[in-house]
Task: inverse folding
């Protein structure tokens, strides 16, 4: 029997056909499912997946605005923006951060300090997908090296950005302030939308006070990227609105002169235009280069600045609080006239000391032999302490506090100067709260010559001088003069809040100013040497502030005292007297007498502003020797 006899060909064919039909049915079913799925994905879910695809391919990037420029009153550029190239990393796109950092060190000069700063910012709170800078200000060789190796570093970019630059460096550091990288605290308080893509923010001074004005409004652009996140093309763009350009009252020529006059010393000069309140110069010496702080100062450089005994980071003009010494005598004299505590003709005998009681402590005059009989005008001209000891006792602390506060002492009188301290104008309540002690008559004696507890900043002294020059009319000190393209400063500059100082007899203003004229041009004036030869009339007052207290019978000998323990030299004044154009306050730390050190500095400032900025004139006046008397 053959094999064919047992084979059922028909049955096998039927089995094959059944299997074929099953497979065909399954194939058709699967095809239908696939078509249905494709229909669902391509038709039903088209918008959803198209959006998701665009999000992977198209990104919205913020376009930071260009920061506004800052000019001085004569259109000299004080703060500009210059392009720099930096290496930045977007952590979300870097596959292996440590390997990438190590590889970058092979082609760039990345220091350990750069790495530490980068890792610190990596740990801080930040916006997602925002770049973190690693190295700033690349040179041409480094830019070329990054271009060659760019394909090896996903998530690493060489970005060109505009960075703040201060052409005058040290000259404007304390006046303008500076910008710096946005830190964690600032990130929490700023508008995250408007600061998207922005790395810098004003840290101090004008840069911080007018941050909103200078920053502008952020823009956006839609860009197409590849799988590595690199931009292929820009699809759409909404341009940012640049920050406003602003013009200050500051005059960089006068600012530079102030620094030259204080060169090699420690001190401050503040100059104000009485009519407008505009700050013409605000110099604190020594200073620092603000450009160091823009992209991040090194630890070594910051330590050097911070640990310097000359304190270059300290703004002496706004935050240096010193005993004002005899510089307050003209204001106190005007207050004495208005309060009735003294008269123009009232005479006081000065034997060289003052006693509250016949057997009490002797408060010494700066002239040990005394000035004899003095009235108010002569007491200001020769800076007689005894006259003002007596006046302080007659007025009492309450009246002195009331009047001196009208001149701006003990308060912040500025409109747009950030960081100014209010000084200290003591009162009964202050002493009771701060020291848990009553106010003693001796406290009034010390306060009457600007010593004791009283403290004032050079900025306050300049403001008090300006309101005196205006005969009691306040034009509060301000930096901002104009916003380029704006017709008015309404809504930009804060409104003035200080009322005028109204005297019962307005003629007392002129009399008080004449006492200051005697200081500069009188036969006995303590600053007569600095007023000699002037083609205009100036008013001023010298002062000397003690760094340490002397015993009752101890005499001050400058030659025997360490330089940093010598008295501070002060001067305030304005010119010309009839139509004041400039008011100046000067302090030279440990400079000795106000007449010999500070007054010649102020005369140089007056001459430059009123007569011109010829270097030979300024230089001659700056070297002028005073020869007048130093007051107490």
Result:
């Amino acid at each position: 029997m053959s094999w064919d006899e047992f084979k059922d060909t028909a049955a096998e064919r039927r089995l094959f056909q059944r299997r074929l039909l099953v497979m065909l049915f399954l194939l058709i079913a699967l095809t239908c499912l696939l078509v249905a799925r494709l229909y669902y994905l391509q038709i039903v879910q088209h918008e959803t997946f198209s959006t998701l695809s665009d999000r992977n391919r198209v990104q919205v990037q913020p376009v930071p605005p260009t920061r506004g420029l800052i000019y001085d009153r004569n259109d000299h550029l004080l703060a500009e923006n210059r392009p720099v190239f930096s290496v930045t990393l977007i952590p979300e796109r870097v596959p292996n951060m440590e390997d990438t950092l190590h590889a970058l060190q092979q082609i760039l000069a990345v220091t350990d300090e750069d790495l530490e700063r980068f890792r610190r910012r990596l740990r801080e709170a930040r916006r997602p997908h925002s770049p973190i800078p690693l190295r700033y200000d690349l040179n041409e060789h480094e830019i070329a090296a990054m271009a060659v190796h760019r394909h090896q570093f996903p998530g690493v970019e060489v970005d060109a950005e505009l960075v703040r630059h201060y052409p005058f460096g040290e000259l404007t550091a304390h006046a303008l302030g500076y910008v710096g990288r946005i830190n964690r605290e600032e990130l929490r308080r700023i508008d995250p939308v408007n600061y998207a893509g922005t790395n810098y923010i004003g840290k101090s001074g004008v840069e911080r006070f007018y941050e909103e004005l200078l920053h502008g409004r952020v823009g956006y652009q839609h860009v197409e990227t590849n799988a590595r996140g690199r931009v292929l093309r820009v699809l759409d763009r909404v341009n940012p609105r640049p920050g406003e350009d602003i013009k200050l009252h500051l005059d960089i020529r006068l600012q530079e002169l102030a620094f030259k006059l204080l060169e090699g010393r420690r001190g401050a000069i503040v100059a104000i235009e009485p009519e407008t309140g505009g700050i013409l110069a605000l110099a604190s010496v020594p200073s620092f280069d603000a450009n160091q702080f823009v992209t991040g100062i090194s630890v070594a450089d910051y330590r050097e600045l911070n640990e310097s005994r000359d304190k270059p980071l300290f703004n002496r003009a706004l935050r240096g609080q010193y005993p004002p010494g005899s510089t307050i005598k003209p204001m106190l004299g005007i207050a004495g006239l208005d309060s009735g505590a003294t008269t123009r003709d009232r005479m006081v005998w000065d034997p060289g000391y003052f006693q509250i009681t016949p057997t009490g402590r002797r408060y010494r005059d700066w002239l040990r032999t005394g000035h004899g009989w003095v009235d108010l005008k002569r007491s200001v001209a020769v800076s007689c302490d005894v006259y003002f000891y007596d006046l302080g006792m007659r007025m009492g602390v309450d009246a002195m506090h009331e009047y001196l506060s009208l001149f701006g002492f003990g308060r912040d009188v500025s409109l747009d100067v950030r960081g100014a301290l209010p000084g200290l104008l003591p009162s009964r309540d202050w002493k009771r709260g701060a020291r848990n002690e009553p106010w003693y008559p001796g406290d009034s004696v010390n306060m009457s010559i600007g010593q004791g507890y009283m403290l004032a900043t050079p900025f306050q002294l300049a403001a008090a001088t300006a309101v005196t020059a205006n005969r009691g009319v306040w034009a509060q000190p301000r930096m901002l003069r104009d916003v380029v393209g704006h017709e008015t400063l309404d809504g930009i500059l804060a409104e003035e809040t200080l009322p005028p100082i109204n005297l019962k007899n307005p003629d007392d203003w002129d009399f008080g100013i004449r006492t200051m004229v005697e200081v500069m041009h009188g036969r006995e004036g303590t600053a007569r040497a600095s007023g000699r030869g002037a083609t205009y009339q100036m008013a001023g007052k010298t002062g000397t502030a003690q760094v340490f207290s002397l015993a009752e019978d101890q005499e001050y000998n400058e030659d025997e005292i360490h330089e940093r323990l010598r008295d501070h030299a002060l001067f305030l004044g304005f010119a010309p007297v009839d139509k004041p154009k400039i008011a100046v306050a000067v302090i030279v730390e440990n400079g000795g007498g106000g007449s010999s050190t500070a007054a010649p500095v102020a005369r140089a400032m007056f001459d430059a502003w009123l007569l011109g900025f010829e270097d030979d004139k300024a230089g001659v006046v700056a070297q002028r020797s005073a020869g007048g008397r130093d007051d107490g």
